[in-house]
Design goal:
- There is one protein chain.
- This protein has 14 helices and 21 strands.
- It is α/β, with parallel strands linked by helices.
- An eight-stranded parallel sheet has the order 11-10-9-5-2-1-13-12.
- A hairpin with a 6-residue loop joins strand 14 and strand 15.
- Helix 10 crosses helix 11 and helix 11 runs parallel beside helix 14.
- It is globular.
- Bound molecules: 1-deoxynojirimycin (NOJ).
- 1-deoxynojirimycin binds next to loops.
- The site of 1-deoxynojirimycin has 9 residues, from loops.
C-alpha cells in the first residue's frame, strides 16, 4: 500500500465484508477475523483497493453487531483486538486498505452507559446520554411521541420505572443523545482508538440520524417507513449532524495516509446527501438513489447525471453501489425493482439466469462510472438472493418485528461458498455448520468452481477490475446518442461503454476493439450484435 497515491479514495473499489458470513476459521458456523485474514490474498487478487468490515465489536448480536456493547472490544465470536490489529497489518502488507464500521446513532442496551442509565432511574444525569422521557396519557402509558421504529412498532420502549427510551431501530438499540457532550467526547476517543490501531477509515452507520429535532416533536402523519428510506422527518438529516462530521474530519486529517469516512446517510435529495461530503466533512456518501434506480436507460442516465452533478457541486466523488447487507442482492432486485423504490424489498424468486445476466451488465456499467465503487461480498460470484429461508432460521430483527415494512435482510447474508461440493462450501471446516443454510446450488458458484473459468462471474469481475486500473483516468463522462433503451458514454477520449437495456438485441457499428463484455456478443463485418442486458467496454 502506498501513502503516495493522492486521494486514493476518490476512485477506489471498496469491498464490503459482512464478517459473520465471509470465512469461519474456528468452525462455530459464524465467520470471524482470522477467517477474513486467511482470505485477504483472494481480495488482493480480485483487484479491490480497500475493504469495509461491518461491525465486529462486542455485541449481543440483536442486530448482527449493529448493537454495540463496547466499541473498543472485539466480540469473542469474531476474535480479539489483536486479531483486528493483525488483520489491518496483513491487509496493508497486501496493498489493501481497511475501513471499519462505526455505529454512533445507538448502542446496545447492554452497553455500560445504558445499564447505568437504567439503574440510576428517572432524572439521573446518566439517563441524559440517551433519550428518556415520561409517557403521554394519564398514567404515562403512551409513548412520548408518534415516532415509529424502522424495524416496526413504536420507537419507544417503557422501562420498569415507567419512563420510556427512544430506539429508532430495535429496542435493544437505544439512541444516544448527541446533545450530551459526553457522547461526542466518547466517539472522538473511539475514532482515535481505531485510527491508532491503523484503520484507513470508517463507514458511519445511520450518519443522518444522530441529531434529533429538539423537543422530539410528533411527525404527525402516516409513518410507515421502509427500513432505511425515510425521507424528511424530525429524526433524520437534521442540520446539526454536520457539526459532528466537521469535528471528525479534523481528527481524520491529523492522521497520515488520508483516512476517510463514508456516510450511510439517507436524505431526501441528492443535494442533502452532498452536504455530508462538503470539503470539511466526510469523504464519501453511499449513493442509495442510484441503488434504487430501475434498470431502464432513461432512469439510469438521469440518475447518473444527477449523482455526478450533486457531488461535483461540493467537490466530492460520487459513489456507486448495487448491493449491501441491507438490500436484496442485485441479481434478484434489478428484475423486480420499480423506479423510485429502494428496490425489491420483498424478495421474489426470479429466473436466475436472467437475473445474473442483468446483474453482470449492471456491475460492468457501475465499474465504468467515474468515482468510487462499493461491492458487496459474493456479488463477484453472482450469488442470488436466497428467497426461501424458513422463518425459524432467520435472524434479522426486522423480520421478527415486521409490520408495515419489509426489509427482510437474511437472504443477502447467507455465508459465501469458497470450495467443495457440500455446505458449508469452504466457509468453515468441512461438515461444519453455517449460521444460515446455503442453497444446494451454490457448489457451482463457489470461488473454486469459478476460479480461472472463462466467462464466470468471478473472472468478469477480476478482468474488469484489472482493466479499470489501467483504462480510466480523470472523471469525465460524455453521453453519446444511441438507440432507445441503449446507454453509451465515453471517457478520456479512448474508452466507450455500451449498455443494452432495451430488452432485445441491438445491432450497432463496432466503435473500436472490445475490452470486455458482460455476456457474449457477436462482432462481424464492423457490426456488433449486443444481446439484451449486456454491457460492453470498448477501447477506441
Ligand atoms: C444500517 C445498517 O446497515 C443496518 O444493517 C442496521 O440494521 C441499521 N443501520 C441499524 O444500525
Amino acid at each position: 500500500m502506498s501513502d503516495l497515491v493522492p486521494a486514493w479514495w476518490r476512485d477506489a473499489v471498496i469491498y464490503q465484508i459482512y464478517p459473520r458470513s465471509f470465512a469461519d476459521a474456528n468452525g462455530d458456523g459464524i465467520g470471524d477475523l482470522p477467517g477474513i485474514r486467511s482470505r485477504l490474498p483472494y481480495l488482493r487478487d480480485l483487484g479491490v483497493d480497500a475493504v469495509w468490515l461491518s461491525p465486529f465489536y462486542l455485541s449481543p448480536q440483536a442486530d448482527a453487531g449493529y448493537d454495540v456493547a463496547d466499541y473498543r472490544t472485539v466480540d469473542p465470536l469474531f476474535g480479539s483486538v489483536e486479531d483486528a490489529r493483525g488483520l489491518v497489518a496483513d491487509a496493508h502488507d497486501l496493498g489493501l486498505r481497511m475501513i471499519v464500521d462505526l455505529v454512533p446513532n445507538h448502542s446496545s442496551d447492554q452497553h455500560v452507559w445504558f445499564q447505568q442509565a437504567l439503574a440510576e432511574g428517572p432524572g439521573s444525569p446518566l439517563r441524559a446520554r440517551y433519550h428518556f422521557r415520561d409517557g403521554r396519557g394519564p398514567q404515562g402509558e403512551l409513548p412520548p411521541n408518534d415516532w415509529p421504529s424502522i424495524f416496526g412498532g413504536p420507537a419507544w420502549t417503557r422501562v420498569a420505572d415507567g419512563q420510556w427510551y427512544l430506539h429508532l431501530f430495535a429496542p435493544e438499540q437505544p439512541d444516544f443523545n448527541w446533545e450530551h457532550p459526553a457522547v461526542a467526547d466518547e466517539f472522538r476517543t473511539i475514532l482515535r482508538f481505531w485510527l491508532d490501531l491503523g484503520v484507513d477509515g470508517f463507514r458511519i452507520d445511520v450518519a443522518h440520524g444522530l441529531v434529533k429535532e429538539s423537543g422530539l416533536p410528533d411527525i404527525g402523519h402516516d409513518t410507515s417507513w421502509h427500513l432505511l428510506d425515510v425521507g424528511e422527518s424530525p429524526c433524520f438529516d437534521r442540520d446539526g449532524v454536520h457539526d459532528i462530521y466537521r469535528s471528525w474530519r479534523a481528527i481524520l486529517d491529523e492522521y497520515p495516509g488520508e483516512r476517510i469516512a463514508v456516510a450511510e446517510a439517507w436524505a431526501p435529495t441528492l443535494s442533502r446527501v452532498a452536504a455530508y461530503v462538503r470539503p470539511d466533512e466526510l469523504h464519501q456518501a453511499f449513493n442509495f438513489s442510484y441503488l434504487g434506480t430501475a434498470w431502464e436507460a432513461g432512469a439510469q442516465r438521469a440518475m447518473i447525471d444527477a449523482s455526478l452533478a450533486a457531488m461535483s457541486a461540493v467537490g466530492a466523488p460520487t459513489t456507486w453501489t448495487l448491493s449491501n447487507h441491507d438490500v436484496v442482492r442485485h441479481t434478484n432486485r434489478l428484475m423486480q425493482a420499480h423506479e423510485g423504490e429502494v428496490a425489491g424489498k420483498r424478495p421474489a424468486a426470479v429466473d436466475e439466469a436472467a437475473g445474473l445476466r442483468r446483474a453482470r451488465a449492471a456491475s460492468l456499467l457501475l465499474l465504468a462510472l467515474p468515482g468510487s465503487a462499493y461491492l458487496y461480498q459474493g456479488e463477484e460470484l453472482g450469488l442470488p438472493e436466497v428467497v426461501d429461508l424458513p422463518p425459524e432460521v432467520r435472524q434479522d430483527p426486522a423480520f421478527h418485528r415486521a409490520t408495515g415494512q419489509d426489509g427482510y435482510r437474511d437472504g443477502c447474508r447467507v455465508p459465501i461458498p469458497w470450495s467443495g461440493t457440500q455446505a458449508p462450501y469452504g466457509f468453515g471446516p468441512e461438515g461444519g455448520p453455517s449460521w444460515l443454510p446455503q442453497p444446494d446450488s451454490w457448489a457451482g458458484l463457489s470461488v473454486a468452481a469459478q476460479d480461472g473459468v472463462p466467462g464466470s462471474t468471478l473472472t468478469l469481475y477480476r478482468d474488469a477490475l484489472a482493466l479499470r486500473r489501467k483504462v480510466f483516468a480523470g472523471d469525465d463522462l460524455t453521453w453519446l446518442d444511441s438507440p432507445a433503451g441503449v446507454l453509451a458514454f465515453e471517457r478520456g477520449g479512448d474508452f466507450r461503454c455500451t449498455v443494452n437495456m432495451s430488452g432485445a438485441p441491438v445491432t450497432l457499428p463496432v466503435p473500436g476493439s472490445q475490452l470486455i463484455a458482460s455476456g457474449p456478443i457477436t462482432v462481424e463485418d464492423g457490426v456488433a450484435v449486443i444481446p439484451a442486458d449486456t454491457t460492453v467496454w470498448w477501447s477506441l
